[in-house]
Every structure is written in C-alpha cells, then in structure tokens.
C-alpha cells in the first residue's frame, strides 16, 4: 500500500494505491486523519486501490464522520471491485462519489 | 488439497492471501472471485489473528480444496483459540446514515454476501470455518 497527498488551499487530495485491509487500514487512518486540520474538502483518489475490506470501510466511515463536521469528502476513480464492496455494505449510500 | 499452517498474526494475512491466490491462478479463477476471496481471507484470518488467542499468540491452518462440476474452491480456516462462531452475529443494517452507523460487524457480513456457502463448527477444541465459492 502506498499513500501520498497533495494540498491545494483547503482541499486535500490523497492518492492511495494497493489494498486497504486489516494490515494497511490503520496507516491510512493515521496518515489522513493527521492531515485534516483546516481542510474543508477531502478527495480520496482510489484509481489504484485494488480492494477494500471491512477494516478499510471502518476508516472511510470514520473519515466521513470527521469531514461531515468540517466540510465534505468524496471518492474519485473507484473501480468495480471496490464499488461492489460499497454496494453490498450500503456504503454507496453513505459516501459521495465523483466520476471524472 | 494444500494447506498452510502459520502464526495467526496480522502480518501473515498477506502470506495466506499469496498462498491461496497462487492456487486460484492455476485454476484460471476470475479476477472478481479472486478479489472477493482475498477480502474474505482478510476478514477471517484477520479475525483469528486479532481475537482467537489474544493476548497470547497461536497458529492457524488455511486449507484449500477444489470441487469439480461445477468448479468451486473450498477454503477452511482452523484455529485452536477461543470458541467463536462469527455466523452467530446479526447482520448489520446497511441503510443507516453515516453519523449513526456503528463501527464493525461488516466483515463477516461481506463474506456471507460474496461467498456461496459459509459454515462453522467447533470440534475437538478447534474453530473450523469453511467457505465455498463457485468459480
């Protein structure tokens, strides 16, 4: 799993590649949560995310709850495998997606 | 039939996934099923790693079998830890708004939804969780 960020004003774009699972989800949480001060728009680029397990869903839910208090969060470039997980778990109704 | 016995640790989830994926690739398993199985391994082996022996450590066995006509993979997870039947837990409500959603409960739900069969038994001091995915 690799993770990188780009900050543009109050917008933070985080690009993740690999798996967001039991082993890597805590790292994603720490990295993103630690960079949210003053951020009103969090963009998660999932183009290179292979899959998300429930550990990853927990992190997304936690980030979503944080961003609801200070702005918005959206996911971009979500692939089919990841989208299937969102649909099965109802996360497609919780999260915001943008097709670019 | 092939099996791998390894310390039940979060760091070893990837070892188990690679072991199973190598077998699946030999059977020309579709990518979608491979991904669903990888997620199931993360959920089930991850649960064993975190809870079965906590705070001690222990080992777990992952066995892979194939059935023919129709082609299916059977994965069996065995540990000697605390008796735990993950199938006993009620399914989470997947239509609750983000701010009201409780954390957790989604892992086993995801496995049940993506696999064709999941069964649990406790026998001779072992948790035995078996799942089947049609390929």
Structural account:
- The complex is a heterodimer of chains A (100) and B (135).
- Chain A is α/β, with parallel strands linked by helices and 100 residues long.
- Chain A has one domain (2-98): 2-Layer Sandwich (Transcription Regulator spoIIAA).
- Chain A has 4 helices and 5 strands; from the N terminus they run E-E-H-E-H-E-H-H-E.
- Chain B is built from 3 helices and 5 strands; from the N terminus they run βααββαββ.
- Chain B has one domain (2-134): Histidine kinase-like ATPase, C-terminal domain (Heat Shock Protein 90, 2-Layer Sandwich), CATH 3.30.565.10.
- Classes of the chains: A alpha/beta (100), B alpha+beta (135).
Element layout with pairings:
The complex is a heterodimer of chains A (100) and B (135).
Chain A lengths: L1 E7 L2 E10 L4 H9 L7 E12 L1 H17 L1 E5 L3 H10 L1 H4 L2 E2 L2
Chain B lengths: L1 E6 L5 H14 L4 H22 L6 E9 L4 E8 L26 H9 L2 E7 L2 E9 L1
Helix pairs in contact in B: 1-2, 2-3
Descriptive key words:
heterodimer; A: 100 residues; alpha/beta; Transcription Regulator spoIIAA; five-stranded mixed β-sheet; 4 helices; 40% helix; 36% strand; globular; B: 135 residues; alpha+beta; Heat Shock Protein 90; 5 strands; 33% helix
């Amino acid at each position: 799993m690799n993770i990188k960020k780009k900050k543009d004003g109050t917008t933070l774009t985080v690009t993740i590649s690999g798996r967001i699972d039991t082993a890597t989800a805590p790292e994603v949480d720490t990295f993103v949560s630690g960079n949210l001060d003053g951020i009103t728009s969090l963009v998660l680029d999932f183009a290179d995310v292979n899959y998300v397990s429930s550990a990853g869903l927990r992190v997304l839910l936690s980030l979503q709850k944080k961003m609801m208090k200070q702005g918005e969060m959206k996911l971009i470039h979500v692939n089919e495998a990841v989208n299937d997980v969102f649909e099965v778990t109802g996360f497609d109704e919780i999260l915001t997606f943008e097709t670019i | 039939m092939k099996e791998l016995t390894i310390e039940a640790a979060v760091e070893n989830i990837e070892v188990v996934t690679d072991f199973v994926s190598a077998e699946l690739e030999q059977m020309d398993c579709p990518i979608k099923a491979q991904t669903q199985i990888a997620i199931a391994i993360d959920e089930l082996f991850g649960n064993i790693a975190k809870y079965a022996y906590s705070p001690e450590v222990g080992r777990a066995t992952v066995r892979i079998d194939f059935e023919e006509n129709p082609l299916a993979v059977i994965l069996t997870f065995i540990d000697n830890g605390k008796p735990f039947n993950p199938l006993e837990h009620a399914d989470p409500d997947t239509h609750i708004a983000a701010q009201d959603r409780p954390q957790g409960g989604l892992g086993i739900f995801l496995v049940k939804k993506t696999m064709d069969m999941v069964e649990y038994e406790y026998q001779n001091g072992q948790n035995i969780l078996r799942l089947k995915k049609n390929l």
